[in-house]
What does this fold into?
Amino acid sequence: MRLSQMLFVTLREDPADAEIPSHKLLLRAGYIRRIGSGIYAYLPLMWRVLQKVSQIVREEMNAAGGQECLLPQLQPSELWKESGRWDTYTKAEGIMFALVDRQQRELGLGPTHEEVITTVAKEMIRSYRQLPLNLYQIQTKFRDEIRPRFGLMRGREFIMKDAYSFNLDEECLKKTYSAMDVAYRNIFRRCGLAFRAVEADSGAIGGSASQEFMVLADAGEDEVLYTSDEKYAANVEKAVSLPPEIIPSPFTKFSNEATPKTDTIEKLCKLLKCSPTVVVKNVLYEAMYDNGRLVLVLVQIRGDQEVNEVKLQNELVRLASDYGATTLLTLKVPDGAAQDKWAAQRVPLGYIAPDLSDDYIQKAKDIEAKFLRIADLTVTGLTNFVTGAGEIDHHVVGANWGKEYQLPQKVADIRKAKINDRALHDPNQTLQSARGIEVGHIFQLGYKYSRAMGAVYTNEAGVETPLCMGCYGIGVSRLAQSAVEQSYDKDGIIWPTTIAPYTAIIVVPNISDAEQMAAAEKLYNQLNEAGIDTLWDDRDERAGVKFKDADLIGIPYRIVTGKALKSGKVEVVERATKRTREVALGDLVNTLLAAIKS
Ligand code: ATP
Ligand code: MG
It folds into this structure.
């Protein structure tokens, strides 16, 4: 491509609305244009990057036994009602764009494709002989993200590769899952990314393994906890650890103490001269189930620990059937105003006791009359603990389970693991923390969709059995931007060679010099013929401007037809290292091929 003929506009200044380096650089270097909130145009350079990433994805998916297809983006609501996700996706999370057509039919714009693919499988897979099957597509997804940001990192329209496997059983699924694990590692390695595979939250489906692939970068929205022996890495949403040791309670007798103005653990411990590890913190949540039932949840957790709301949410989804519901719509910590909807009298926030009476809840049709009481594992072994007395400005000390208070029947791990906690597999290892960008997620789904939608096959014994499913996603557009987030300098982008829009750029310092232009044209043809994607900067611009632009757009090799031409050579500059060398015209193709290979 000749740059003089390309839609190519670079910006001198950082765009005001871009916060992170990769977003700024892609805008400045003319890769993307913002069209609306979370909506971007991929300009010619960006489209080439996306095509290169897609090609790598395609090759690895095919090698792992995947078959490419293309599913519709317009999805009838009936499918989502069958799976039970229509309300969750359009109302609770509200992430799906939904519309009504001229015949008053409800449709959604695909945020993901489990429903569509399960429908296809239900209609087309009959026998075990057709299994296993792994179908994938590379396509635009739509999600009405509440906070679209960071350019392509969190868009409302973005490109995803999604794959879905249909397996005979769990064992067969595990095989596909590990083949996908290998394929994903190959993809990210080939795209030149530094990444980490981490254990991930699987939602409330339970038991199913799930793994995310994180590109390590400070701008990442996810937190990864890991140990330096490399034996453990998990998304903080999922991570487990040992809490710090308890510093024993100084109290030996139960009593109610006046503790004025101690509505935080810190203030309380300062006043009572005790460690937060002997405080039982009582946290109130409002859970709204999909059948409209409001359940008040009272959680007990150790004073120095935080509730992991993802773990709590999963626990509440598991309990949904106890309340005649199928899933949870929202979970929040109620403020004073929220209490007006359900409290019969003001709850003493900051001083709640573990035995908070159910009388605090109004008697109403849609409100569960009793608190759902859940204790985190950290409080079960506490003795002589400190906790709220149930009246403002008062706490009790020296309390014990089974004496002053009953430990809730429901005990679970709902604690947030944090940096410096000891690891479960080896208490000598402490958890470290890093930021990550989630570029991929592989997931053993199991039977959730096949059961809900009746996708069954006849097994070898002639018995009708639900299909066992897996799903596997890669954020193609997010991946492309995360490569920039990992690789840039003050002058611009430094693309990994494998996904750069062009591998080389020929810069002609002076286009009115016929000798320079002739040499450039010849090299341009030779390089492209040799399979090296080459751009030719033949614009009528000063040499300095061209060099700056070449650095900004991040093409791995810059070839300059400058002074050295007199001695039959060109200058080759490596973008990443700025290393410069002179190469004879006749050697250029081979020199570059060798450099690319290494
Ligand atoms: P996140 O937690 O970041 O919202 P997710 O868990 O909802 O992502 P998945 O449903 O697992 O995402 O989608 C598969 C992949 O698609 C993700 O791993 C991510 O790389 C990409 N992705 C998800 N949402 C977006 C988005 N809004 N913009 C760009 N890429 C996205
Ligand atoms: Mg995910």
Notes: The chain has three domains: 50-70+110-240+433-484, 255-412, 502-597. The chain has a mean pLDDT of 96. The two ends are 25 Å apart (CA to CA). DSSP finds 15 helices and 31 strands in the chain.
